[in-house]
Amino acid sequence: MPLATASQRHPLWELLEQLDSRQAGAELHRFIAELYPLCRSITGEGLRETLRQVDSFAGLEIVEVPSGTQVFDWTVPNEWNIRDAYIADLDGNRLVDFQDNNLHVVGYSSPIHQCVSREELLEHLYSDSRHPEWIPYRNSYYRETWGFCVSHNQLAEFNDEEYEVCIDSSLMPGSLSYGEAYLPGETQREVLISTHACHPSLCNDNLSGIAVAAMLLKQLRDIPRRYSYRFLFVPCTIGPIAWLHGHQELTSRIDHGLVLACLGDSGGMTYVRSRRDTADIDRVIQHVLADSGEGYEVRQFAPYGYDQRQYCSPGFNLPLGCLMRTPNGEYPEYHTSADNLGLVRPEALADSFTKILTGLAALEDNKRYIALVQHGEPQLGRHGLYDKAQEFGLFWLLNYADGEHSLLDIAEKSGLSFAKLSKGISLLKGVGLLTDGPIEKLAT
Ligand code: ZN
Prior knowledge:
Number of strands: 19
Distance between the termini: 17 Å
Oligomer: single chain
Low-confidence stretches: none
Structural class: alpha/beta
Strand content: 15-25%
Mean pLDDT: 96
Number of helices: 13
Bound molecules: zinc ion
C-alpha cells in the first residue's frame, strides 16, 4: 500500500489520535486471558497453539525447525509435550495437580510414573520460602530430569513415607516452532519486533509482550508503511538463534528493532539500549519516554535479560533495544504463580502499546527535510501559520530542515514531541514551505 504524499500526515498519527485506550487495554487483557491456560515451553503443542491463536488474532506464519538442527553453537532440542502430571498419596488423592496449574511441573520434565520415597520426592520438589504462597516457575531444558514446583506452605504437608508420582510427558524428536510475520513497506529496510513466547501460565513475562506485539502487527497490517516490518514470536534464546542462523543475509536489512517483554505491570517504563548505544531506536524510545512526563529508566546494554542478547551478539550487533515496564527479576511476582491475570493491567498494556506505536510513527517520519526558504525565515504570517509556530515547532523545523538534520535531531534539539513536529511538518508542507529531503539511507 503506497504512502499518501504531499502534506498528509503519516496515518499512524491519525491512528494514535483516534485510539481508544480503554478499548485497546481491554482487548489486550482479553487476549492474554485466552492464552493464559496454555502450557507453553520452548517446543511443543502449547507453543504451537499459542502461535495459532496469534495467527487468528493478527496473521502469522508458523515455522518449524526440526530437532537436532545445528544452529551456531546450539542444537535444537527434542520436542516436549505434556498431557497430565500429579503427585498423589497411596490412596490416590492428588496432592499436586498439573490440571490446577501448569507451573506445578518443571518444564521439560521427562516422563515418570512410579512410587517414590518421601526423601526422593523432596529432592525433586521446588518451592520459594520468600513467597510461601506462590508456586515458583522452573524448567530444565538442556538437562534431563523431572520435578514439581509447589508453594512453600504446601511443602510441609508431605509427611507420608511414599507417594505416587506421574508425569505423562514425552521428549522426542519433533521440531521447534516460531511465528513470523512480514509486512512489506515502500522500502525493504526493516523494523524487527521480537518477543518470547515460551513461558507457561505467566502473564507479565511474557503474555504481555505477545499480546502487545500481536496488536502492533494487527494495526500495522492495514496501514501504509515506509519501512517493512518483521514480527517474531520465538521461544527464548534458541528461537532467535535459530532464526538468525537461517536469515544471516537478511539481517543487514534491519535498521531498527525492539525486543518486547513485561509490558503489563503497573511500574514505569524501562528501556535497555542496543549494544550500539546511540542507534536511532535508542534515541527515539528515549525521546518518547521523556516526552511522556512519567517516570522511566534507560539502561545501557548488558549481555543479560531477554533476546537482545542474541540480536546484539557481536557477529550481528543489530540496532535492537529492549522495552519493558518493570524488568525481569525486579518485581516479586516474577517467575511465580502470582504473575497472573491480576498483575497485568489493561491501562498499562494500552500505555505500553501507545508508546511503542508512537516510536514507530516517529521512525516512519524520521527523514531529512528541506525548507524551501533557506535565506532568512519565511514570513509565517503571510502563510497563516504564525499563531501555530510555537506549538508545532515550525521555526525549529524550518531552521533545521537543511537536508542534514533528521526529525529525530530536531526533536532532540527542540524538546518537542514527535507528534507535534509531525503536525508541524504537514502544516509547512501544506503551504509549500517544506519538502522531503533525500532518503539515501532507505535506498533499496
Ligand atoms: Zn522469564
